[in-house]
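Notes on consecutive records. When two proteins share a document, each keeps its own sequence and its own token line. Never mix them. Below: protein one.
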Amino acid sequence: MATLDWSQCSAVESVPGKRSGAWVFRDTRTPVSVVFDNLEVGATISEIMDWFHLSNEQIVAVIEFAARSLDVIPAMQQCTQPVDAHPLR
């Protein structure tokens, strides 16, 4: 499974010594993972907002970032034609 490069998402930060450097919502101690963990078990965005004191914008930002990251095609899969590694003679 690919790891997301959260450093490209402006809604989050990783600070050494803060939650062991885990990715958290900017200016909070709330890990980004709480959104995905709770959505996975059936929580709504409104419930997550209430439980973790997050805004709709914060939650939508990480969900959209994750969704856009899934659209990125790895460089090795971008090649549409087979490559012949045999030298020309």
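Protein two starts on the next line and is unrelated to protein one.
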Amino acid sequence: MLDHHLQRSIVYQLAFQDEIRFSDLKPDEIENKLFTYHLKKTLSSGLVAKTEDGLYHLTPEGRRYSTGVRDKDQMLIVERAHSVIFLVIRRKSDGAWLLYTRQTHPLLGYSGVPHANPNSEQSSVQSAHQQIKERTSLDARFKPLGGGYFRIFKDGALESFTHFTLLVCDDVQGELIPTDTKATYYWATEPDFNAPDMFPSSQSLVKAYQDGKPFFIEETFYI
């Protein structure tokens, strides 16, 4: 639900407070514009609400989301990996890759293989199939290949920490009709996964896919 460590940190801090002002919620080392952006994300997610007096607090859904973070023996929510399903999707007729460019933070403007979000009520394969269908109109039947952890640091700060599963589809069906407002989807027949605007994890994911063997990866990248 929250895909940036600052957003998870906001929920974590509010788990200890009934209500709190912006000035007390924002860390001193984070600039106002950046923090406000991620605070708005928590508001739009329905996890955080703002009173008429300008105080921030967790919604009932936010309180459920934060369950367990108040236990000192639990890993802090800000430190937990965000679960994601990376997807290699190929068109059999010409070998093209389905790629996308992010239109939101984190890693705004970067491109790479698409992703889906795990759903507790579905298998990873089912979630990936449904979400790609909704976002692109493509019919992709997946099989799992491997997984691991990626940490991405940007300008010395942690930008993304993901626990991922890689699913692959070598014969996607249908016509690409994107409907996702948070990303731009496109076909690429000879993508340069070494390009500076590609996700830094792209090379590792592509290599694992090309090897075609079960794998586990844990890597850290700096951009």
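For the record: Confidence is low (pLDDT under 50) at residues 68-75.
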